[in-house]
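Sorry to interrupt, but I need a hand with the structure work. Please put the record directly below this note.
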Amino acid sequence: MRPQTLLILVLMPGLALGAQPSGTAGLTAGEALFLRANVEFTLFHELGHMVIDELELPVLGTEEDAADRIAVIAMLLRRRARPAEEIIPWLFAVAGDWYTEWELGEGRHGGAAIPYWTRHPLEIQRFHNVVCLVFGSDPQTLEGLVDTELLPFPRAMSCEREYRLARRAVQWVVATYGPGAGAGDGAGIGVRYLPPQAPQRALAA
């Protein structure tokens, strides 16, 4: 898959990812939204890793944080023509998942030291980062969030700039590697499929 094709998939609104899936039967509307939003975020996060790796993008900071920001900006850009009341719950479902994971994680640790040394940001940090980017994309609509538990005032003051920086970075990638950017034939991503192995062989390999 060429980088141009990948970027079209991630950023073009109205593709198949926006269609109503058939696998949410039996869920409430809120549950289906939560599931779909977090599946989309996870997909775009992993695609972000692939874009960074295959295009050898310079990353200042952790790659996990960069992939999170790519995912949030991609989700916002795909819905840029839609009303805020549709976009905001979609992204806040992603933030809500990180908050839930943090609360569950505190229970799992059972008072033990939290592993601050991992390459992934803490779930509570990812929660606040997502909320900040969403607020930064539309601060007038979300003004009521400022100085709350969701968005403390000191962090809110930097969110518009954080959003602009993240969006500018994604737009630079699109302008540099997207359709019409002049990437040569050597810019493709090769995919090689291997036949599945029996469990015993896979463990011995």
DSSP finds seven helices and no strands in the chain. The CA atoms of residues 9 and 15 lie 8 Å apart.
